[in-house]
Amino acid sequence: MRSIGVYDLVHYLKNSLDNDPRIQNISVSGEISNFNHHFSGHFYFSIKDDRARLSCVMFRSYASKVSFVPKNGDKVIIRCNISVFEGTGQMQAYVLDMRPDGLGDLYLRFEALKKKLNAEGYFADNHKKAKPEYVQKVAVLVGDKSAALSDIRTCFQRRWPICSVDVYPVLVQGEGSSEDIITKLLAVDQLGYEAIILARGGGSIEDLWSFNDERLAKVIYELDTFIVTGIGHEQDYTIADFVADLRAPTPTAAVELITPDIGDVISRIENNMGKLTKDINKKYKDTVRTLGYIQDSVIFRDPYYIIHKDAQMFDDLSYRLFDHTKMIKSLRTDLEKGDQTSYYAIKRMIEKRKSKVDYGIISAKQSLLSTVAAAAERIINRTAFISRDLKGCFKEKAQHFMRYDTLLKAYGYRNTLKRGFSVVKKDGKVVKSINSIFVGDIIGIDLFEGHITAEIKEKNDG
User: Distance (Å, rounded) from C-alpha 346 to C-alpha 315?
Assistant: First the structure.
């Protein structure tokens, strides 16, 4: 009898199963047993019914996308490929997706609504509003006294405490919850907020179903106010997330996405103030230097300098004209007594020279007037340019200082105390950690109105 090796047989079975389309990408329902969430992130378990059991493995890349925490006894629907693990020769299901059994209709409804709204343009990026840069007034719609609300408050206080945050409690699941959210959104949209946060903690698809309402999606689409959603955990998506201007994976992340870090803002302001001061000083010095050059110029100190210089040339030409006139009179007298041909030749020469002298005098006058006018115009234009330049520079820098002064006042020391905060000091230094004070220490507490001196009676490190 001909025999084959164990590996060859197992390998043949694996290939046969892998290439059988009837058992690839199939859905199987059953009950979880022997569930093991391995430290590697993989899920190892069995799925069973009253007549059979099937071993399953769900690798970390797929397990991380499961929206609930599986446990023994859960009834689930898995989508999987059937194959053989060659190391043991055991047939098992390689799970690609897992969801609680009984929710199949909800998933189908979710996908159908998502497809419909996407086709109608409700998810289009060109409709989404731009995120405000430095929010000062935010409305938060979240479950009353929920962990999500606590996380949001803590995140605002840590990152951007100068922001005014108003909370509007809403029903986040159950009957009437979608209507409650819609009513509150429409009301808040009219109150002039810079942003709205719509948030809820994690849960199953049933828990989050209020946010998959078509009416709610259309209301979010029509809002005038920028809206960010922070619903569930990172792997949870709702219809509201797709329609909103911005989607955050968690309620805390929603705050982080729309607020700057106040420490970073303070650093930028300080850096910009230093640069502005340096630029203003440099511009001022350059302008003063340019003005000094003009003031030190000969024309500025003695506007008649050019006039005097050209006047001297005018006098010189006048003297030369006078001398030529005398010479002409003398030659004319001599020639009248002699040869007439020579007289006319010399006369023409003299007349020609006389014409050149006249032209020189006229040119000298015109040159003098043009030079004086040009110099005056340069002085006027330069003075006007310096005046405009200085006014523009100081106006621009003043606007920058006013803008940053507003921000500095907003998170200044006194304003922070005015909002109900206090500062604890020991030996004149601010206490930043509970580890720096001890029972029996005397501390000072600065309030907006007044100061308290107290003794530490009890200390809680928790």
Answer: 27
Strand blocks (E) in 177-310: 195-200, 226-231, 246-248
CA distance 135 to 296: 53
Kindly report whether the global pTM for this prediction surpasses the value 0.70. Answer: no
Which segments of 120-176 does DSSP mark as H helices, in order?
A: 147-159
Phi, psi (5° rounding) for residue 168? -120, 100
Distance CA 254, CA 249 (A): 7
- CB 67 within 8 Å of CB 235: yes
Q: What is the number of alpha carbons within 13 Å of residue 204 lying toward its C-beta?
A: 14
Query: Interior CA angle at 148 toward 145 and 151, to 5°?
Result: 105
DSSP assignment letter at 458: -
Q: What is the dihedral of CA 291, 294, 297, 301, to 10 degrees?
A: -80
Question: 134: Cβ–Cβ under 8 A, 6 or more apart, which residues?
Answer: 260, 265, 407
- Residue 136 CA to residue 260 CA, distance in Å, equals 11
∠ CA 125-129-132, rounded to 5°:
135
pLDDT tens sequence for the chain (462 residues): 678 888 888 888 888 888 888 989 999 999 999 999 999 999 999 999 888 999 999 999 999 988 788 888 888 999 999 999 988 889 999 999 998 886 556 777 888 899 999 999 999 999 999 999 999 999 999 999 999 999 999 999 999 999 999 999 999 998 999 999 999 999 999 999 999 999 999 877 788 999 999 999 999 999 999 999 999 888 788 999 999 999 999 999 999 999 999 999 999 998 999 899 899 989 888 888 888 887 777 766 676 666 666 667 766 766 666 666 666 566 556 555 554 544 455 556 556 655 544 445 555 555 545 554 555 566 556 656 656 665 666 677 667 667 766 666 666 666 676 777 788 888 878 777 778 888 888 888 888 778 888 888 887 765
SS3 percent helix, strand, coil of the chain, rounded to 5, is 50, 20, 30
CA distances from 35 to 27, 48, 79, 364 (A): 19, 12, 17, 111
Give the contacts of 284 (CB within 8 A, at least 6 positions apart): 393
